[in-house]
Amino acid sequence: MSLDPRNTLARPGLAARSLEGLAAAGVYGDPVAMTVVVAAAPLRAAPDAEAEQVDQVLFGETFEVLEADAGFCWGQARRDGYVGFVAKADLAPQAPAPTHRISAIRTYAFKAASIKSPALGPYSLGSLICVEARDGRFVKAVGSGWFVEAHLTPIGRFETDFVAVAERYLGTPYLWGGRESLGLDCSGLVQQALLACGRACPRDTDQQALMGRPVESLARGDLVFWRGHVAIMLDSETILHANAHHMATAIEPLAEAVARIGSTQTGQPTGYRRI
Predict the structure, then answer these.
(1) What's the pLDDT score for residue 179?
(2) pLDDT at residue number 2
(3) Same structural domain for residues 60 and 119?
(4) Which domain does 198 fall in, by range?
(5) Residue 252: left if φ>0, alpha if ψ -120 to 50, beta else—which one?
């Protein structure tokens, strides 16, 4: 059986104990759950601050650590299963289970229950919060400050229109491997919008291209795939996508995008999917 290394916590010599019998390793270990304590922790391809960012783990999300050294932890992001390296300073022992998620596109926490106190963040949509105290319109989050409660939604309550969620990222800068509201890539946009609606979604475009079913007549919410790229249909003729041409999340006619991308090595769309 072929295992995708992006989502398999195994490498030569070391693997998660749950993979014993599936992935060969000299040593099997039990991952230790840690919590991200910064607004967005880069998940890198190598234990180096200059290495490629392949994903991000947002505040309050769990990163399961199998190996740690002085600077980096190697493990797996629980929310989307991606494997890589996160800076040790961005993690802390596992926090209590989240009670809320951030439902605003981005928001600040404050050191006190006042908008005049020093701000922390900003924190992005989808970040996970455990409320430990209340003071008027503010709630105190474990490991952070005081959030305006109107910017949070209880765990288990979801959005209903993932396209409308994605539209809130319009103008957000393009960032390779990004999932935060300050910068994200094409598949990160799709993933964040679906997660806000309570739908699991893999991280990369080739994985997302296996979701749903193929369609020929396009409608709002359908996904258009190219080799290494994905866009969301706003209607039958218009797309929304985070892309390196605009270096932002942008809206444009599908026909224009197909012509422009088709003139590059990426080529023509590889599929249209309804999820």
Answers:
(1) 98
(2) 82
(3) no
(4) 162-274
(5) beta
